[in-house]
Every structure is written in C-alpha cells, then in structure tokens.
Specification:
The protein has 203 residues and is mostly helical. It is built from ten helices and no strands.
C-alpha cells in the first residue's frame, strides 16, 4: 500500500491522491486502508518515512565529515521531483493546520532526525563534537535543507551536501582548558598603554 501510494503520487501529483484511488491501486478495499490509516496524509507520511529508511543508509566511515557527506548525498538522491512535490505539499498543509504539522513531525520528521542523530552520536563518542552541538547540528542541517526545499534559495545538490558536511564537521569542541579559563576582566583586558595614569594625582 505504501508503494502504491508513491507510485500514484508520481503519476497524479499530491492533488490526485485519494484514499479510494490508493486502495484501487493497492488492490485492497477502502475499509482495509482506513483500518490502518485515517487519512491520505498519514499514509503519505508513512510511505515517505519508509522510503527514506530504505534508500538513505547510515554510513560508518570513521569520521563525521565522511559520514555526513554520504548521508546527505543520499538525502539529495532521495529528494527526486515527486518527493519534493510531496514534501512541499505537506509543508504547505502543515503551515496552516496544526494537526497536520504534528503528523508531519511525528510520522516523518522524527524518523529522519533519529537517523541523522545516530551519525552525530557516533561522532560524540569519537570526541569529534559535543553532545550539545550534536543536538544543534540536527536543526542546522535540516533547517538548511528545508529552507532550500521550500523557498528555492539554492539547489539541493551534492555541493550543498558536501559544504554542510564540512561545515558541521569543522566545528571544534571546547576543550577542558577553554571551559575552565575565566573570562577576562575589564582591567585585565586593557593594553599596557591603557593602564591608569597617576600623573594627575597628588604630589
């Protein structure tokens, strides 16, 4: 049924997706379809989530940069014309309907964030990044992707994937010395020539 949903979406676009048409393509009754999914939005999100898990591997190259590069390039390949149309359709619906927004978050975004999180957590274990930065990196990466996907501010291609991977992996985690170093006081930050002058004092 999930495969039938995506096949029909490729032919008809988001507007042509109806539960009756999906049931007919899958060779099942509408009752069977509604037993598992209450709406075409739920069905579509589950179809996209499954396709993402099947087509975007979780690399383990030993370095964060190479892991991200492979993962994000696979994400670019995942975002074909049909998928992009569907994601834009879902984003538009989520923007005006909180219930749809929650469905998009819980049935699709959660799975993709968890997959990326596995890559970043391995990097934390290798001391390449901190756990706090790993959490932020998920937002930075997917924020950049959705910004390009929805607003057409730039292409979602291998160049984007490589640049994002390099930028995230280049983050230098704070060392113990950095964390223990006290902030400079106002007086200690002065240059020698700026030291107080007592030439106008008594005497």
């Amino acid at each position: 049924m999930l495969a039938a949903t995506l096949a029909l979406a490729e032919e008809e676009g988001p507007a042509g997706l109806h539960m009756e048409a999906i049931a007919k393509r899958a060779g099942v009754s509408k009752e069977t379809l509604y037993r598992w999914w209450h709406s075409k939005t739920e069905l579509l999100l589950d179809a996209l989530a499954e396709r993402g898990q099947q087509t975007i591997p979780l690399p383990d190259t030993g370095t964060l940069r190479d892991d991200l590069r492979a993962f994000l390039r696979a994400t670019v390949d995942f975002a074909d014309d049909t998928t992009v149309r569907l994601l834009r359709h879902l984003a538009a619906a989520a923007a005006s309907d909180q219930a749809v927004a929650h469905q998009v978050r819980d049935r699709f975004l959660v799975t993709r964030r968890a997959a990326l999180g596995q890559i970043l957590h391995k990097a934390v274990a290798r001391d390449e990044i901190t756990s706090g930065y790993a959490a932020l990196a998920i937002d930075l990466i997917y924020g950049s992707m959705w910004y390009r996907l929805i607003f057409h501010v730039g292409p979602l291609n291998y160049t984007w994937a490589d640049q994002v991977a390099t930028a995230i992996a280049s983050h230098r985690p704070a060392t113990l010395d950095d964390r223990q170093r006290p902030p400079a006081s106002a007086d200690s930050s002065r240059l020698p020539s700026e030291a107080p002058n007592d030439q106008f004092g008594a005497g």
